[in-house]
Amino acid sequence: MQNSCLRVVLFLTSVLSCFQLSAHAELKLPAIFGDNMVLQQQMRVPVWGWDQPGAEVSVTFSGQTKTTHADATGKWLVRLGKMKASVTPQTLVVKSAETKSFTNILIGEVWLCSGQSNMEKPIGEQPGQKPVLNYEAELAAGNYPQIRLFKVERILAAKPLLDLEKFDGWRACDSQALDDIKFSAAAYFFGREIHTNLNVPVGLIESSWGGTKIEPWTPPVGFEEIPALAALAETNIVASGKMPNTTPTVIYNAMIAPLAGFGIRGALWYQGESNLMGGTNDYDYYNYADKMAALVGGWRKLWDEGNFPFYFVQIAPFKYFSGKTPRVPAATALPEFWVIQSQAAQRLKNTGMAVTTDLVNNLDDIHPRDKQSVGHRLALLARNKTYGQNLVSSGPTFRKMKTKGDKIVLFFNHEDGGLISKDNQPLTWFTIAGADGKFVPAEAKIGNGILEVSAAGITNPVAVRFAWDETAQPNFYNTAGLPAEPFRTDEPVK
User: Fold this and answer.
1) What angle do CA 419, 424, 426 make, to 5 degrees?
2) 237: confidence class by pLDDT, cuts 50, 70, 90
3) What is the pLDDT of residues 395-427, one digit of tens each?
4) What is the pLDDT of residue 492?
5) Distance, CA of 264 to CA of 308 (rounded, Å)
6) How far apart are the first and last CA of the chain?
7) From residue 107, how far is each of 83, 86, 160 by CA, in Å?
8) Domains of the chain, residue spans
9) Which pTM was predicted?
10) Does domain 2-106 match CATH 2.60.40.10?
11) Nearest residue to 86 via CA among 51, 133, 42, 128
12) Hey, how many other C-beta atoms are within 10 angstroms of the C-beta on 231?
């Protein structure tokens, strides 16, 4: 009963906010609409805002005009008809008692890019981090006027905001813009590849915050759909005063909710380190797949575009346990988390995961500098799964095993031309166990799309693990040059 009353109060507060917003008798659109933006092609693009209750509002763009009336709260919304990609700058005109115009608008592909510090990391200098590889040349070459950038700035809220309060508005991509607003390197490299391969404009919306967990990014409706997490849906109602950025929903409220509904093709997600480290005492990271389901399902429900593409990055090797200060219970915590991320990708429709076990040149740096390859692998997923290009977007993934005398035979998906050792050396980071459950280093040999794994002294093997250490950087790939996902054949993480 108490929760029901709180929900009513929250709803009435939201409605009151709408009335207050419309009471100024002026036409207003959300901050995500602006000069230089990109609107999503091949979609009935929503355009919305606020005005006096009952006001007639018309929206004109690309040869079409849509008319509606503001409702009793002052909210209005129209949907533009589907449009083809266009590099010709156009103007969006919104009229009621007054007129607002947005210029230099392109039509193309729009992606929302979110997560913690590895998504937030820019191309150039960032306090406490090293720049991406070859950053000076990358910035110098960053002039792509048909790529447009929008960055949401850090802010928290106890309830969903109607509009963004802190942001850097749409800017055409050039060296100065990338450096001025410290735009996400991973997002930029992804967008650059989508733009150059599809030859269409690309809009990138970055909403990220270093050091954050997944829970504050998740909407209540996402938690409500997962029984084990349903209690977290109420947290935002009781949050008040100076709230920590670990509180469930408080980043979503301020940095995602105001964007919900803006036409996008899909989302990118690069996060997990904070949830892994947050599990030192309570093993909280074991339910990260549920939390991914809450995040993805919640965002999709709010956008109401169906199961839009959601591609994410498997976090990279790092000395979480073996560094100077242990941050996790054991060196196996990270591979356990890798498997949980893999399980999330298998569980959730229209998702994909980019593996990064080979993209680290310093295991003491939690921010790997090769963000070009991260962006490329995310782009491969989108080009293959979303845009229908016939290319390989995944490395080998474990499918099944069988025993064969003193060997275990492993079968894989995504062989794509064959399994290889990238450096032509013996395969690394395989271990095998007999009935006693003790894992020892193993020899793995490739043959006709399978692996045979064995070790001296193991006569009745029962299980294999691959890359089962936080420092693992294996050489097992497919011929497309993509690394295999870490895996275990024994009892999965629960």
Assistant:
1) 85
2) low
3) 999 999 999 999 999 999 998 889 999 999 999
4) 62
5) 8
6) 33
7) 7, 5, 29
8) 2-106, 109-386, 398-488
9) 0.93
10) yes
11) 42
12) 12
Distance separating alpha carbons of residues 457 and 453, to the nearest angstrom: 13
Residue with tokens 């709408």: 18
**Strand, helix or coil for residue 150:** strand
Q: Which residues of 126-141 are buried (b: 16+ CB within 10 A; e: fewer)?
A: beebebbbebeebbee
Unique residue bearing structure tokens 């560094």: 323
Using the predicted structure, report yes or no on whether residue 24 has a pLDDT greater than 90: no
Q: How far apart are CA 55 and CA 178, in angstroms?
A: 40
- How does residue 14 score in pLDDT terms, banded at 50, 70 and 90? very low
Residues 6+ apart with CB under 8 A from 449: 411, 412, 415, 418, 419
Q: Which amino acid makes up residue 145?
A: P
d(CA 450, CA 434): 20
> What average pLDDT does the segment 246-252 reach?
95
Fold of the 109-386 domain: Rossmann fold (3.40.50)
Closest CA to 446 of 491, 402, 415: 415
The string of pLDDT tens digits covering residues 82-110 is 999 999 999 999 999 999 999 999 999 99
CA distance 400 to 413: 9
Q: What is the DSSP letter of 379?
A: H
Nearest alpha-carbon partner for 408 in 381, 383, 374, 442: 442
